[in-house]
Amino acid sequence: MASSSSVLSVSEAQKRILAGAVETDSELVSLEDAFGRIIAEPLIAKLTQPPFSASAMDGYAVIGSDVLKTPVPLRVIGESAAGHGFSGTVESGQAVRIFTGAPLPKGADAIVIQENVITSKETPRDIVIISGLPDANHIRPRGGDFSKGDVLMEPGATLTSRHLTLAASMGYGTIPVRQRPVVAILSTGDELVRAGVQPGVNQIVASNGHGLAGIVKGYGGQVRLLGIASDTRESLKDKIQQARGADVLVTIGGASVGDHDLVGPVLKEAGMDLDFWKIAMRPGKPLLFGRLGKQRIIGVPGNPVSALICARVFLVPLLRALLGIQPALDQGFKSMPLGEEIGENGPREHYMRAIYERDHSGCKTVIPLPNQDSSLMVPFVRADCLIVRPAGAPQAGVGENVTVLPLDF
Question: Which residue among 195, 228, 296, 403 has its CA within the 20 to 30 Å range from the CA of 41?
């Protein structure tokens, strides 16, 4: 446990939040509802694809040895189209008219494309192969993509359009996926009013919950918005009770230790085991984390930029862990050159709002925005990424590479 005076590093705080995180249970969903979900079990092909050798071209199915020397006459004995294959057998001196996607007839082992064939309206059953040896690429062999029993998808993968197309061809109508982690989001403070309501004197709109809900949904979670708790123990107790059953409770504001910060004390009264409430991070120092039974509780600061950045750095890895996505701490960091100088950093890891710009040679660089106030959303919306400066980092000059976290929320 962290003492009340200790300040954790970002990495240590992440480790504590993720410690012991167990994947949610699996559930079956239809292909229609599976986009963006996380695979819970290995997907094994139930079918072979293609299920038969098929033509990749329009032309004629023939015996390859018949057309090694051209020109050569052949007799057309039938037709094979997609969904309507030829039921007979091709023998020497014969051919079957075939179309793209149609089954290769029994006895045939080659396709001659129609451009290399002379036909006659007067004698349509008689053709002459004039040139070109058969090409193996003109036939899509049975099992050329995959065979029944092949393991083609592993747990933890996100189901994209490509995955869904493959799963359908594998024989799946439903897919086992991880249940979406339920995240309850609670705004706190007497100064807050619901979005869409005209604020009164000394009031502001409770905007942070909507941004956090977007992050949760974007990373595979299910949101339970609890609304606003006033700065009374009774109101907080009631809202905390409403969060029962959620995998994660995120509280917004009131996580510090001021005279009006009641979130921590009320959560403790409800049975929360407090782990820490201060981290060496800017913005976002007053971050609370604890456990209430199986539920994990993350208390983010009230300033909107702080709340969103803390959610991206701490809540997103937790969602990934609950969904079985490994490594959970893969934040997608990149390295990019600076477009302008940055001074030395202080004792807290700094997440600086920044934009991409091209230098004089056309190379992409990153430049911090001039105003880093954690209450300002307009610069945050303008930003493309966050420059992550380690605690105590020295001054960095133009062209020097820095760590960047793209803004993907």
Answer: 296
